[in-house]
Structure formats: C-alpha cells, structure tokens
Amino acid sequence: MTVHATHNIDPARREFYRRIGERNLAPLWEVLHKLVTATPETAIVPHLWRYAELKPHLLEACELITAKEAERRVLVLENPALPGESRITKSLFGGLQIILPGEIAAPHRHTQAALRFVLEGEGAYTSVDGERTFMRPGDFVITPSWTWHDHGNVGTGPMVWLDGLDMHMIKLFEASFREGSGSDAAGRVSRPEGDSEARYGANLLPVEDSYRRPTSPVFNYRYDRTREALEQMRRENEWSPWHGLKLKYANPKTGDYAIPTIATFIQLLPKGFKTAPYRSTASTVFVCVEGGGKTVVGEGEATRTFAWGPLDIVVVPSWEICRHEAAEDAVLFSYSDQGVHEKLGFWREEKFDA
Ligand code: 1HN
Fold first, then answer.
1. Which end of the chain is more exposed for a tag (fewer CB within 10 A), N or C?
2. How do the domains of the chain map onto residue ranges?
3. What is the DSSP string of 81-98?
4. How far is the CA of 112 from the centre of ligand 1 (A)?
5. Are 107 and 181 in contact (CB under 8 A)?
6. Residue nearest to atom 14 of ligand 1 (CA)
7. How many A from CA of 77 to the centre of ligand 1?
8. pTM of the model
C-alpha cells in the first residue's frame, strides 16, 4: 500500500519525488509514521485450528504422497492473513507432520532450528546429531540449527506432531542453508539412546564438556516429567493472575530458552481459572495439550473468542490483549519469538487488572 497522499502534495514536491526516485531515493517524511508506528502493527490475525478438522486431511495426505516423496509430510498452518507464505506468525513456521508405520523421513539439516511437540501416536523416533529419541504425546523435542535429523516410525499407528521453526527469522536475514542426506555423516547413529538425558537431564552437567551450541543439549523434554512438575507445583497455589502456573523449557547450561530463537512454555490453568488480560510483543502459538477452555483475543468490536479442546491450536498476534479461561484443568504448550525480543532488547509486555 502506498501512503503518499498525492492529492495533498504540492506539485513541486511531487516532481522532486519523481526525480529522486530515478536515483533510487525516496523522502522518509512521507513514510516515517508508517514505518515507526506508535504501537505494534501486526500483519497476522488470531486464529484457531481444530485438531478434529485437521486430522482427516493429514490422513488424506498419507494417501496422496509418501513421506519419502514429500521429504517431510507436513500440512502448513497458514495464518489466514498471509496465505501462501508458510507463516503461522510473521516470524515463525507452524505445521503438522504425520508419519506412518514403516516410513522414514530421511536425514537432512538446515540453518532453521525446529521444535516438535508431539500430538498423537507412539513408536516414532527422531534422531538429532546421531542420537535417537522415541517420542510420546506431550514430549517437546528440539532440533538445533544445522544438526542432522531424521524421523522414523517403527510403531503400529500413525504419529502426528507439531513442527515449529524459526523459519522467517532466517529468511529475513537471508541466512538459509540446507543439506540433504548425501553425506556419510547424515543420520548415522553415533550415540546411544538416552545419552544426552543422562549427561544433561539429571540436574548434573559434565565438568569436561565439549558441547558448545547455544541450543539446549537436552533434546527431548518428556511430558511425564513436565506434567509431574506442574502437578507438584499446583499444590503451592502460586498462581500468576496472567499466566496461571507457567514454566519455560530451559537450557540447563545457560538458563536460556531451549532454543535461543524460539521461546517455549508449558502452563497449567486449573478448572475455572480466568487469566487477567495480558499482551506482549511476541506473537504466540498455543496448543491445548489437555483439558478445555477458551481464549479471548482483542478489544471492543474486534474481540474474538476461540473455544479449544485437546490438540487444538490458537495463534495470538503481537500486542493483542489476550486472556484464557479454563473450563476444566487445562495444560497449554506455547511457542513464540519472545526469546529474540528479549535478547535484542525490545521485549515489552503489559499486564492488566482482572
Ligand atoms: C523440516 O525439516 C521438518 O525435519 C519439519 O521434520 C518441518 C518445515 C519447514 C522446513 C523444514 C523436519 C519443516 C522442515
């Protein structure tokens, strides 16, 4: 959209703009307030994907293309305001991947870091950097930037997970690299299952440690342990008015988010809990892991309400006021670009009274 109010522009100025345009120059004063807005302007809209509506299409995709042919059989969650751009938020990718028994998704690596949040099924593994982990529903698994990874399903039913990637940050900086499985190193299992959990997942860290990535060395944050932590903590009754009981998935070496570019959280809202209105600069994707409730986004005429149940996915844009209500005990997983906002110093949040 061009914002030049040409009918108001003095002809001398218009003529000047035309001439400087030929030199690839333009007047900032015509666009300054469009560029530097008083508050965030979001290109995306809030949206809900109901798992029950998605699942049949995932199964249909299985009949139309093999995992081998697709490389990754993923249905992209497209923000309705940005069709064709493979964006769930401006900066993040979201998609649902399905893998059938006996299938493998061949090794590859890319600069984009990825998370998997397991929705359904069992018997599939992912291997990252030479170590396998079998995934179960609710597990949060990470693939650091430029690590070889592949998936396989040795179980008896389909397995579905959510893929979240820092895709559009990498694209913004034009720093995308990808490598296929031609290399010998690709997908070779070099460490026993459970190795990283033993080294880094027991509140212990090796004194002599060669691990140097900024991403967490723990690559499967298992749901049984996560759920147990929430259940134990709820007894202390320390509910945040804005978040209920909310924990971040942390890198045990640094205390940072598990993936530096993607902030990830798990939160418990007990039955009947209503969070106080809240907004932040991070556009956020929520997944209902258990229970049910609703999310109210926006203000006044533009208010939208999304009722969710297990495995439904809701996206909330930057700076839109948001609150949740739990109709029953609810567990929400979420991911956003908050970690980048914080590291670069432009993170903002606003907490309202209930
Ligand atoms: C990817 O490599 C995976 O490895 C999943 O499972 C989703 C979406 C965009 C680009 C690469 C995977 C992806 C992806």
1. N
2. 47-351
3. TSTTS--SSSS-EEEEEE
4. 9
5. yes
6. 72
7. 13
8. 0.95
In this structure, what token pair is assigned to residue 271? 């039955």
> Quick one: DSSP state of residue 8?
G
- For ligand 1, the distance from its centroid to the CA atom of residue 80, given in whole angstroms, is 21
Q: For the chain, what is the radius of gyration of the CA atoms? A: 22
60, amino acid identity: E
| Residues written for the chain | 354
From ligand 1's centre to the CA of 72, what distance in Å? 6
Whole-number Å distance between alpha carbons of 341 and 18: 38
pLDDT in tens, 77-100: 999 999 999 999 999 999 999 999
Q: How far apart are CA 56 and CA 288, in angstroms?
A: 19
Which tokens in the block code for residue 170? Answer: 């990498």
Q: How many helices (H) and strands (E) does the chain have?
A: 8, 22
Which CATH architecture fits 47-351? Sandwich (2.60)
Cα–Cα distance between 115 and 95 in angstroms, integer?
11
Q: Give 246-295 pLDDT, tens digit per residue.
A: 999 999 999 999 999 999 999 999 999 999 999 999 999 999 999 999 99
Structure token pair of residue 311: 């495995």
Question: Which atom of ligand 1 is the closest one to the Cα of 149?
Answer: 4
Task: Tell whether ligand 1 has an atom less than 6 A from the beta carbon of residue 165.
Answer: yes
